[in-house]
Amino acid sequence: MLNLISCELLKLKRSKMMPISVAGVLSTPFLLLIEALQTHFDKPEIIFTLSDIYSDSVLYIMLLVNMMVYVAIAAYLFSREYTENTLKTILPIPISRTKLLLGKFCTLLLWIVMLTLVTWASIFIVCGLYHAVFTLEGYSVFVAIGWLPKFLLGSLLMFLTTSPFVFIALKTKGFVAPMIGSAVIIMGSAALSNQEWGALYPWTATYFLVQGKILNTSYPIWLSVAIILLVSAVGFFMTFHHFKKEDLGSVAKF
């Protein structure tokens, strides 16, 4: 399994997707910097802290920018063997299809965690620049570290909810359908981010869990967790079932 993950990481290292994905998640810290500057100049009486900025960033990460980036990564990882016609080089390798998919899912999880850490660290650095010029209340590395567990929990929950998009990528053997699906999902998340029903919408429920917003709704935490796990399990099952039943020989020849 470690060899499979290493192989996937090496392929990613040689592709343009790695720097593109990093650039994508870096947009979140810069959007927050622009928001902070706008608030400072338009409403200087408003005092906000580093913790406030990290709290606001969770919305961008879990419901907007980073979510779309993570779906793009998932679609790329699982569809590239079709789009780049590399299945013919994989078929002769004595590795089961289950292990092949597990290796890709593990790589996806590692990549999502890495990009989440990049986002977390970049927010601290960007806020440091703001702090050096205007002074930011509560700017401390200890505050940033305090938010790290929430960011990591969010990355795990987002990984679980990418499984349906992986199935779409395998089913369509492409990149376009998962991205269109993610755009629809993100619009739904934005609409429900301040609604109680967001606790029942798996891609918004992850955000509610991390931010503790479910406690302000009439729904129990276990129900949101169960919905997320159900959607994730269905996505994983359909992905493995489809890939194990597919005639890869004919696909590779095509």
TrEMBL record:
- Record carries keyword Manganese: no
The regions listed as transmembrane in this protein's record are 20-38, 58-79, 100-133, 139-162, 174-193, 219-240
Annotated CDD domains: ABC-2_lan_permease-like
Q: Which UniProt keywords apply?
A: Membrane, Transmembrane, Transmembrane helix
Does Transmembrane show up as a keyword for this record? yes
Taxonomy, superkingdom? Bacteria
Name this polypeptide is given: Bacitracin ABC transporter permease
Native organism: Ligilactobacillus agilis
